[in-house]
């Protein structure tokens, strides 16, 4: 162990979870090395994204980093709407009350700007205690001695040892998988998010959304415009851009053989959005990522030996109907992980840091938010095929439609009830059937049109920045049969059926008079979302430091 460079703490990742952990370690005077695989913080990160400061949270990002809102975020979100869409009919509800529940503030953010700002502060704080921050370093696994975790291994440096390791390396965490804490076996445990950052000057945003410079809006979209896929769309105002995207259950994308870029385009071209997007639509960046469904995968014991796991790496992403919160939970978890280690060390029990961290997540109420008891109690009933099928049938019937009309004055209040939101089942009912029936029965036809012509998938890929690791593909296709890996052809956000410029494509191989459908892979246009690791038979890891895609906006 003495042959390797040693730090008391190693933090992997400079997103909000890693930054919070590093800052808290610094507050306790703990020597910390922070490792980031991108060229800069945020260059590998994507988010919708809204960051919350919850009133009940023990830590918020502005507590740890004064000046955050003024320097690193975009706009405060002061208005929150959901639109139930059926064809050209729309019924909209104000969800600002739900949005403001337990909320001190909420801002829209762009990850490249936010994370790079955090990176600068983290570097300063870590240096004060004898540590520092290195970018362009891909941490690829855990270093073990006699079966026990003692440090990390990287592509670029010799192994590094530490007394505690905080994995804040995102949804595709190689450290969490190496420790056996997470896997990629079940598509129903994941969402896929796809996003476009759209250019729009501040004065145009003010005019089209009727807001001042210190105001922002969030719009959510659900109903029949997404080919029956479970999920919905979003629009958030930034300072001089818009974030527009979709978030869907990955198993539903696969089941419907939907193509993510087309689902995004369906939203962009809907006449409802014409009033906001105008005829000057210009995309700056296309991106995608997996999102863990915390209700199913948030780790109750996010630790193993010296390893403590935070944020998306621990499945700590709260996606419950219209409530989507992740970065705030990562901040809380990162700070609690560092606090737990410092307190365990003070008691001369550093080996108990992990269990102490897990206990803090429970006592601070984080786990109840991520894994709500109401959902866990009702899931076995509400997500059964028989029950969900009956509910959908009733909603579509004349009786169900009469009920929707009769309850029209109460529906907005029900949408704003946090306890009901936390129990929303992962079925067609809340994402497709209910909003469609609401739109059909209560909606008003949209009078305008959309003049948006979205870029082609080829153009979107071509506009991204890549540093291809020639000769060192980070994904290997283990089984190229269509049965094993064909789902990736349509589910990969930079691939499509009949499109030859993406990562995955279908081919027909003829041998000895027989034909076989196979899948081929080209990792050059990969946006590193991890979708194919779940839906195809692959060996998946991140590219080496600084290699692969580089997001300018995120």
TrEMBL record:
A GO MF label: oxidoreductase activity
Protein name: Flavoprotein
Signal peptide boundaries: none
InterPro entries, alphabetized: FAD-bd (IPR002938), FAD/NAD-bd_sf (IPR036188), FixC-like (IPR039651)
Keyword Flavoprotein: yes
Listed PANTHER family: ELECTRON TRANSFER FLAVOPROTEIN-QUINONE OXIDOREDUCTASE YDIS-RELATED (PTHR43624:SF2)
Known cofactor(s): FAD
Xref: Pfam families: FAD_binding_3
UniProt entry tagged with the keyword Flavoprotein: yes
Keywords on record: FAD, Flavoprotein, Oxidoreductase
Taxonomic lineage from the root: Archaea, Methanobacteriati, Methanobacteriota, Stenosarchaea group, Halobacteria
Residue stretches making up the FAD-binding domain: 123-332
């Amino acid at each position: 162990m003495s042959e390797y460079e040693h730090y008391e703490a190693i933090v992997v990742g400079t997103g909000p979870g890693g930054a919070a952990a590093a800052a808290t370690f610094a507050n306790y005077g703990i020597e910390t090395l922070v490792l980031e695989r991108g060229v800069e913080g945020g260059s590998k990160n994507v988010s919708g994204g809204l960051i919350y400061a919850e009133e009940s949270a023990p830590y918020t990002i502005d507590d740890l980093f004064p000046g955050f809102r003024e320097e690193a975020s975009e706009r405060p979100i002061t208005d929150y709407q959901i639109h139930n869409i059926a064809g050209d009919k729309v019924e909209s509800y104000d969800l600002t009350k739900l949005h403001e529940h337990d909320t001190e503030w909420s801002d829209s953010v762009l990850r490249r700007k936010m994370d790079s700002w955090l990176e600068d502060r983290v570097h300063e704080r870590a240096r004060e205690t004898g540590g520092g921050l290195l970018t362009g370093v891909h941490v690829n696994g855990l270093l073990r001695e006699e079966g026990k975790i003692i440090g990390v291994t990287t592509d670029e440096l010799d192994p590094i040892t530490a007394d505690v390791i905080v994995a804040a390396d995102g949804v595709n965490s190689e450290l969490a998988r190496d420790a056996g804490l997470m896997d990629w076996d079940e598509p129903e445990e994941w969402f896929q998010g796809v996003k476009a950052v759209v250019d729009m000057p501040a004065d145009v945003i003010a005019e089209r959304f009727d807001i001042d410079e210190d105001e922002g809006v969030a719009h959510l979209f659900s109903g029949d415009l997404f080919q029956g896929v479970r999920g919905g769309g979003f629009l958030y105002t930034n300072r001089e851009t818009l974030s527009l995207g979709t978030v869907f259950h990955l198993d539903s994308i696969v089941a419907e053989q939907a193509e993510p870029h087309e689902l995004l385009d369906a939203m962009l071209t809907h006449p409802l959005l014409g009033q906001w997007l105008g005829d000057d639509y210009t995309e700056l960046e296309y991106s995608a990522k997996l999102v863990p469904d915390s209700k199913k995968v948030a780790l109750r014991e996010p630790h193993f030996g010296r390893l403590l796991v935070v944020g998306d790496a621990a499945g700590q992403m709260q996606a419950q109907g219209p409530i989507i919160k992740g970065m705030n939970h990562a901040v809380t978890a990162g700070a609690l992980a560092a606090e737990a280690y410092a307190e365990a060390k003070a008691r001369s029990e550093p080996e108990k840091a992990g269990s102490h961290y897990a206990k803090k997540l429970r006592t601070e109420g984080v786990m109840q938010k991520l894994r709500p008891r109401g959902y866990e109690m009702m899931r076995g009933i509400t997500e059964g095929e028989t029950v969900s099928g009956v509910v959908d049938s009733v909603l579509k019937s004349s009786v169900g439609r009469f009920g929707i009309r009769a309850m029209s004055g109460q529906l907005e209040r029900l949408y704003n009830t946090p306890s009901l939101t936390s129990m929303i089942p992962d079925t067609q009912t809340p994402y497709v059937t209910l909003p469609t029936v609401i739109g059909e029965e209560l909606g008003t036809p949209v009078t305008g049109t959309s003049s948006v012509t979205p870029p082609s998938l080829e153009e979107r890929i071509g506009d991204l920045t890549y540093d291809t690791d020639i000769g060192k593909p980070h994904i290997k296709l283990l089984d190229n049969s269509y049965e094993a890996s064909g789902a990736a052809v349509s589910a990969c956000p930079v691939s499509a059926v009949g499109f030859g410029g993406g990562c995955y494509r279908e081919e027909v191989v003829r041998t000895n008079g027989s034909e076989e459908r196979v899948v081929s892979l080209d990792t050059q246009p990969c946006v590193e979302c991890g979708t194919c690791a779940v839906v195809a038979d692959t060996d998946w890891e991140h590219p080496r430091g600084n290699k692969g895609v580089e997001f300018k906006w995120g």
